[in-house]
Amino acid sequence: MASMTPNNLSVLHRFQAERLGPRPALRYRRNGMYRDISWDAYRDRACAVAAALIDSGVRPGDRVGLLGENSVDWLVADMGLLAAGAVNVPPHAPLTARQVQYQLSDSGASWLFVSTEEQLEKYRAMRSELPAIRGVVGFQVYGDDVEPWEAFIQRGRRALPRLAAEVRRREEHVGPDDLATVMYTSGTTGVPKGVMLSHGNIISNSLSSLEAAPRLPEAVVLSWLPFTHIYARTVDHYGAIASGAPLCLADSQDTLVENIAEIQPTNMSSVPRFYEKILTAVACPDKAEMGKRLRRIFGGRFDWLGSGGAPLPYPVAKAYQEAGLLVLQGYGLTESSPVISFNSKEHYKLDTVGRPIPGIEVKIGPDGEVLTKGPHVMKGYWKSPEATADAIQNGWLHTGDLGEIDRDGFLKITGRKKELLVLSNGKKVVPSYLEGLLCSDPCIDQAVICGEGRNYLTALLVPHWDNIARELKATGVTLVADDEGRARQREVVDLLDGRVKRALADVSNAEQVKRFAVLPRPFTVANDEITVSLKLRRGVVLNHYADRLGELYCE
Predict the structure, then answer these.
(1) For burial by CB atoms within 10 Å, which of 48, 49, 361, 543 has the most?
(2) Model's pTM, two decimal places?
(3) How many Cβ atoms sit within 10 Å of the Cβ of residue 173?
């Protein structure tokens, strides 16, 4: 983009709309046909949203919920509420009604956008606990308690003649230190924390990411990762605005390969799981043939592919490189807006997460923890000064990850200081929180959640055998005599399956335990599986039961 650093994301959007006008800004498919939205139309609809919100009494700094899957409407609503000076609170679409309620209530959201009937029902189920919500707008839903999206847009357009100056004034008065979004992420206790990211945080990160890995002048960006995660939001959504490249929306994860073939993008960000699945699908003994199959799927226009959200296995990156497809890995977290480091097309090492992007400092603490400092570091956690003070010390954000920096300045992540699982699709899970939910059931004595680097969660369960026996006796079933036999007894497994589902009823799909193994004996101090203070030695347990866990993932 031209040499200017705007104060906020809305001014950046206006600048690009004025510069690029009729050129395509967004591309999406509807009813089987791809459609373009120009920068002029994008800006026009965003201003209408801003005017409608202002007309509804939304003030600068008010929090506005945006609950829905990726869509053009989601992007327009985001830019519109930012133009009104509001703060975007975007719960993840797969969350349960209770989880959505917590985020909207904790942030004090006063207005809400929803995408579908399914998302609207989450709000309706918790409406009595969300008295601060003054209005709801539905992208694809209608009802007495929801204003249709197009009617909302038209209301904003009617209000614009008298509110255009106010929209412009609000835009100009939002500074880089003002909040753009509050994004909730689970902390080590399992209680969601709202990460406060400012306009300056996100703009600096978008521009620095583009400087580290520039896009071609004719770039076309395909986006499929959820905008409710900061990865896609900064790199795809705001990154496309900053670069002026058309942003094309995939229909869904299931149609991604089809969308790649039709759109022929030059850039795409993804999580390792996608690259792994494609590689598995084309695998064959002949490397040359496998390379042809990969290139056939990805087409001939890709400049480079981005990977983040979870570690990218070196063999996967190497296989793509040998096929002539460069997958560049980066690293970051929500609290850092998110990009901390990234490989570039000119300077990369496949077994690292790259060098720090421009304007960002990274160092390794005395205990091996990765620390970072710069304009990308969050303002703090919403209403949590203690957690903020713990995370940011003397300006340095403590990432909770362990790493090392090589002589060429490339960062390698070697482990995780905090106890947090990352699935292969990039979803983060707090195991201790889920274990607590499971152990609250009287039939479950001990539980260990597993799934690091996998595509779903499993668990090792130690039953409370007396309670199990009592439950089964009530149905006329008797436990078998030997320990190993009863751990595999069908009635025991079925009973625990129902208990697990009930214990995890209010957590997201990514936090559900898909399979579990029943253990005949508890974890003990004698086996070094728990400490004398009864704290779990997770690494020891996972090592002891590696074979059983392997069985749970054998399919």
Answers:
(1) 49
(2) 0.85
(3) 12
Q: Judge residue 414's burial from the number of C-beta atoms within 10 Å of its C-beta, 0-12 exposed, 13-18 middle, 19 or more buried.
A: exposed
Q: Report yes or no: 301 and 266 within 8 Å, Cβ to Cβ.
A: yes
Q: What is the mean pLDDT of residues 227-251?
A: 97
Q: Compute CA distances 463 → 440, 475, 544, 549, whole Å.
A: 12, 18, 18, 17
262: pLDDT strictly greater than 70: yes
430-552 is classed CATH 3.10.310.10: no
Lowest-pLDDT range of 168-177, 308-317, 507-516: 308-317
Report which residue type is found at 534: L
Fold match between domain 207-215+273-422 and domain 430-552: no
Q: What is the mean pLDDT of residues 514-527?
A: 92
Q: How far is CA 234 from CA 146, 216, 269, 468, 479, in A?
A: 29, 18, 11, 49, 55
Helices 72-83, 149-173: axis angle to 10 degrees equals: 40
* pLDDT tens by residue, 348-378: 999 999 999 999 999 999 999 999 999 999 9
Q: Looking up tokens 């847009």, which residue turns up?
A: 153
- Residue 212, classified by CB atoms within 10 Å of its CB into exposed (0-12), middle (13-18) or buried (19+), is buried
Q: Spelled out in words, what is the top-level CATH class assigned to the domain 41-175? A: alpha beta
C-beta separation of 519 from 542 below 8 A: no
Q: Which residue has the tokens 């969601």?
A: 192
DSSP calls for 323-361: TT--EEEEEE-GGGSSEEEE--SSS--TTS--EEPTT-E
Consecutive H or E run containing 444: strand 444-450
Quick one: CA dihedral 287, 551, 555, 328, positive or negative? negative
* Fold classified for 207-215+273-422: Rossmann fold (3.40.50)
Sequence spans of domains, the chain: 41-175, 207-215+273-422, 430-552
Q: Which residues of 513-545 are buried (b: 16+ CB within 10 A; e: fewer)?
A: bebbbbbeeebeeeeebbeeeeebbbeebeebb
